[in-house]
Amino acid sequence: MEYRTFGQTEMQLSTVALGGLLARYEGLCDQPWPEEKGRVYLRAAELGINLFDMGYGDEVYIPDELKGNHGGRYFSLKVGGPSPNQLKEIVDKHLLNLRRDAIDILRLHHLNYVEDEGLAEGIDQLKQAGQVRSVCLIRHYRPD
pLDDT digit string (tens) for 27-63? Predict the structure, then answer.
């Protein structure tokens, strides 16, 4: 497996990540059932994948063996564009489910970040508290 440094962090991430398994669509659209999802996560880790992307409640399917503050595993969380009040609640829920102290990469919509000062302040507070290590802004463009 090839690894690269993520931005200005010291995180060495696999060039292949395991994306969210769309928990809401179990058995539909060829999405795996819960039992299979756990096996997929474990096999990915065996192959050297160390970046796991969460969304749609996927963290509940991550096997216990991959949860916790073990070094060498990284978790990304897409939150979209939550209100500042929702942000901490979302992060806290994922950290509890993962039994971790921090989300390694918090991904959110760029427009929400620049248009809502409260959201940027909330992220700063989470970073200062050590609950978020880095932020990745997702570019979406407004339809013309």
Answer: 556 666 677 788 888 999 999 999 998 876 777 788 8
CA distance 122 to 140: 21
In whole angstroms, how far apart are CA 121 and each of 81, 112, 128? 14, 12, 10
pTM: 0.87
Q: Which CATH superfamily hosts domain 3-138?
A: NADP-dependent oxidoreductase domain (3.20.20.100)
- H-only helix segments in 2-133: 34-46, 84-98, 110-115, 117-128
CA torsion sign, 106 to 64 to 36 to 56? negative
